[in-house]
Amino acid sequence: MDKSRVKILVVDDERGLCAGIQEALKREGYVVDAANDAPTALQMISERLYNLVVTDMKLPEMSGLQLLKAAKRQSRDTQFILMTAYGTVASAVEAMKEGAYDYLSKPLDLQRLRALTLKALEFQALVAENNELRLRLQKRSEPGLLIGGSEAMRKVTELADEVARSEVTVLIEGESGTGKEIVARSIHLKSARADQPFISVNCAALPEPLLEAELFGHVKGAFTGAVADKPGRFQLADGGTLFLDEIGDLSAKGQGDLLRVLEDGTFRMVGGTKMLRVNVRVVAATNKKLQEAVVAGKFREDLLYRLQIVPIVIPPLRERAEDIPLLVESFLEHFASKHQRRRKKLSAEALQLCQRFPWPGNVRQLRNLIERLVITGKSATIEVGDLPDFLNAHDRNATTFTIRPGMSLAEVEKILIRRTLTQVTSNRETAAKLLGISRRTLQYKLKQYGLLGEDEPGAAK
Questions:
Q1: Is residue 100 exposed (0-12), middle (13-18) or buried (19+ Cβ within 10 Å)?
Q2: Is the pLDDT of residue 459 over 80?
Q3: For the chain, what is the total number of helices (H) and then of strands (E)?
Q4: H or E element, residue 83
Q5: Could you say which of 15, 36, 246, 248 has the lowest number of CB atoms within 10 Å?
């Protein structure tokens, strides 16, 4: 452990004691800050990531336990050691139940403080290692669908990271195969609920008679076949995240039931009389235009407003063809490892052909194709002739594109620039000459239309 990189915060309203503890830990090689009240400590925690907080239980404006709870909401991995007088040991034990690592009785034994500090930091390192292992295993088991350097995908990932730090309800919109559940899982894993359950429900797969029981559970005898109490998805997700996929297919009754739970967090099990309360964050997803469904009377407007506190729209793959090389590279690496095959690559011509295809099944369709090519490909380089017929057939028929009356000039220009770069030449200088504009103007328009991230790796110059 490099102690010079470990940051510790000491909190105590006794200034002399606080300074003494700070100095003792500094001598051990740690970076140590000090605060004499809880509000100052919380401000410091919001501005700097601390590995460990050593705090007194009794502070003027809030207790050490209240400080712990507030700080954990900002930085759940920060460890806490509570200092307490002998008369408040019970409170320290309660704090340990809330996530404190341990406590020390006053007057302090500095030798024990040093030993406990080291143990708390070792525990934190172990937790971090386990979290990294879990993420590595998850990455191996399922390749990411959200890879990409395009401006559109950067906005998606940045917004997902931002809402993960909150508790708001999120609605993820996008076509089938764009990776809506992957975004939902990403939000969950980066939230304070990461160690709690992530429960997924496909609303389209729940028939009306079973919907209420699946979501809210049932008691014994509630209906024929209910031989025992069974918890519903909301109960299973208590403390964690409930992902409601294809929310646009939820029945009218299901929409009403869901709205009531979202509003007050309470419900009854089917056949039950007791009101139950759960602490669940809801993330919903749809491949339908819910606003159009509201106008058509097929979806409740009040439910849409309740779900759509933060909307995240995932663009289809055809609108971010510049991300295809990164996705292909990721899938090739993943499936070669998964199926124990030698690494393969796509030839430049094969990759350009993939970029010209509209991918109606989106990233999922591309992923499945790459897995197939990894398994069936005979050589290390996948050529155009190794690609399926539907790709080549589309390419032969894609020499023109349709302009619809009512399209804006910007839409037409965006399509023309993308088609030129993917179907004619990937060299920007040559493309600019064909389009009759300067290379600088082309670069500006690529950024303007979200066709290129500012630092896109591997872009053709």
A1: buried
A2: no
A3: 19, 14
A4: strand 79-84
A5: 15
Peptide bond connecting 405 to the previous residue in cis, omega within 30 degrees of 0: no
Q: By the 8 A CB rule, do 52 and 72 touch? A: no
User: What SS3 class is residue 425?
Assistant: coil
Structure confidence by residue, pLDDT tens digits, 80-122: 998 887 555 566 667 777 778 888 888 888 888 998 998 888 8
Task: Lowest mean pLDDT of 193-207, 424-438, 442-456, name the range.
Answer: 442-456
Query: What does the DSSP assignment read for 317-343?
Result: GGG-GGGHHHHHHHHHHHHHHHTT---
Decide if pLDDT at 129 tops 80.
Answer: no
Q: Give me 165's structure tokens.
A: 């730090």
Span 218-229, pLDDT tens digits? 888 888 777 788
Does residue 461 carry a pLDDT above 50?
Answer: no
Of 4-18, 344-358, 416-430, 437-451, the range with the lowest mean pLDDT is 416-430
Complete domains list, the chain, with CATH = 3-134 (3.40.50.2300), 161-315 (3.40.50.300), 317-397 (1.10.8.60), 399-461 (1.10.10.60)
Region for residue 359 given its phi and psi (left: phi exceeds 0; alpha: psi -120 to 50; beta: otherwise): left
Instruction: State the alpha helices, DSSP H only, in 190-323.
Output: 208-216, 233-236, 252-264, 290-295, 301-307
For residue 449, the Cα-to-chain-centroid distance in whole angstroms is 25
The end-to-end CA distance of the chain, in Å, is 44
Please give the distance of CA 112 from its chain centroid, rounded to a whole number: 40
Say if residues 70 and 46 touch (Cβ distance below 8 Å): no
Say which residues have a Cβ less than 8 Å from residue 138's Cβ, sequence separation at least 6: none
